[in-house]
Amino acid sequence: MTLLNSILKLPLIIATMLALLIPAQAQSVGDMSKDELNALIEQIVEEKIENLLADTPKASAAQGRFGVAVENYLLANPQLLERMSVALQTQSQQAEIAQTSQTLEALGDRVHNDPDQVVLGNPDGDVTIIEFFDYNCGYCRQAVGNMLQLLEEDKDVRFILREFPILSQGSADAARVATIVNRSGKVDYMEFHTKLFQSRGQVDKERALEVAAELGLNPVEVELQMQDQSVTQAIGRTYQLADALAISSTPNYIIGNEVVRGAESYEGLKRRVDNMRECGETTCP
């Protein structure tokens, strides 16, 4: 987070810090010099930052009602605002990862072993990546190349694709066709997948059926199966998983015990995979 962002969020950060710093019990600070007051404020700020990063509450020895003095001091020393903001962000990320880990554990096999998921790469790989995607998502289009490069260069990655159509009715229809293509076992799903993402314009039912026909499937039969209840249930299971993990956009990834929100470069995916092998987390200490 940049200093500019911290300054733009100054009112909220100051309010948060005042709530954290001002004790319930007060004593007069009128007999303190400016230097002594500044030193006291900085001592408390340092303790609070340390507490946030360690996620361990500590009782501050300093007391006093000096809200105005705190605000003035923080305005004169914006670097403390930046540090406090980073500490709050770190604490929030740690809490989110902990909550996500609990949710993934509770979901169990529904995360990694859905009967209609698409498994690419090494089915017995030591690191699993799950991508939620939409065929009309521009960032998902870019992500295809990153995925292919990772799978080409790392033969121990298991990559799972989950149809998550959220952008249009065309996306939903294409996801239904893709589910049937995957079930057929007669064509290469990855070829179907990449051809759809190489399409010009919006991907819809007509385009998905056209690609399925190019690969040898009967488009009439595929269209007849599109409204099958089991297809609806397959996509519905992905919606349920996404809802449980607060996933509402594409692309999103599940790697280890973390939801990675937003597009990831090849380098980003590779770094997270390497970290999983090194320390069991997507980000190592």
Coarse structural class: alpha+beta
- Residue runs with pLDDT of under 50 for 5 or more positions: 1-8, 20-29, 59-66
Counted beta strands: 5
Assembly form of the protein: single chain
- Radius of gyration, taken over Cα atoms and rounded to an integer in Å: 26 Å
Order of helices and strands: HHHHHHEEHEHHHHHEEH
Shape: elongated
Topology:
Blueprint: H1 3-8, H2 10-21, H3 34-54, H4 67-76, H5 78-107, H6 109-112, E1 118-121, E2 127-133, H7 138-153, E3 157-163, H8 169-184, H9 189-197, H10 205-214, H11 219-225, H12 229-244, E4 252-255, E5 258-261, H13 266-279
Parallel strand pairs: 2-3
Antiparallel strand pairs: 1-3, 2-4, 4-5
Helix pairs in contact: 3-5, 7-13, 8-10, 8-12
InterPro entries: ScsC_N (IPR041205), Thioredoxin-like_fold (IPR012336), Thioredoxin-like_sf (IPR036249), Thioredoxin_domain (IPR013766)
Protein name: Thioredoxin domain-containing protein
GO molecular function: oxidoreductase activity
